[in-house]
Amino acid sequence: MDSLNVPQRCFWCGEDEQYTRYHDEEWGYPVEDDRRLFEKVCLEGFQSGLSWLTILRKRENFRAAFDQFDFEKVARYDERDVDRLLADKGIVRHKGKIAATINNAQRAIELRDEFGTLAAYFWQFEPKPSERSEVKDEATLRKMAQTEASQKLAKDMKKHGWKFFGPTTAYAFMQAMGLVNDHTDDCFAHQKAEEARKNFSPPQPK
User: Fold this and answer.
1) For this structure, is 29 an active site residue?
2) What are the extents of the domains in the chain?
3) Is residue 23 annotated as involved in ligand binding?
4) Which of 15, 93, 130, 169 has the largest count of CB atoms under 10 Å?
5) Active-site residue among 27, 32, 39, 44?
6) How is domain 31-195 classified at the architecture level of CATH?
7) Residue 52 catalytic?
8) 190 belongs to an annotated ligand binding site
9) Mean pLDDT in residue range 139-149
10) 42 a known binding residue?
């Protein structure tokens, strides 16, 4: 392929086809679907200590193992389900993270019942324009492991009983789900994500 025809992308996605597709089509675009939001919280927890590409390659296995991340179903998992998941070679077999996912499904139901949707809860933490970094270059983003907004989200999630969701994980979640647009300025997807955010109406709590 002529290198002149390869679009400029964010530094982190490399050249893996699955990773670049995730970057091009998903990362940074606003999401309001509760199941996708719950899935991302869970997968970010499973990623702890691993690369996102490792999780991305197993994502379909995770979806099959966790009932497509239907949190109503996951919340009812029992010890038999834990044993089943620990025996599943297609996912990350970590008992603490599996237990956290079941716990978080129960907490997701509580938040949905309180706020109307999970999306309405999460989008409350979208940073105000004055709180957003205007510098979107590689050097700056490499240093930004967390932000004030991600710290607030992680603190509130902890208060509500969620597990495996600290401020660094919260920031990765916010970047991926479009609560912030952290595509670098020279990335071809930056403007596409910005337009998607402008056309997006954040859901409101009930």
Assistant:
1) no
2) 31-195
3) yes
4) 169
5) 44
6) Orthogonal Bundle (1.10)
7) yes
8) no
9) 85
10) no
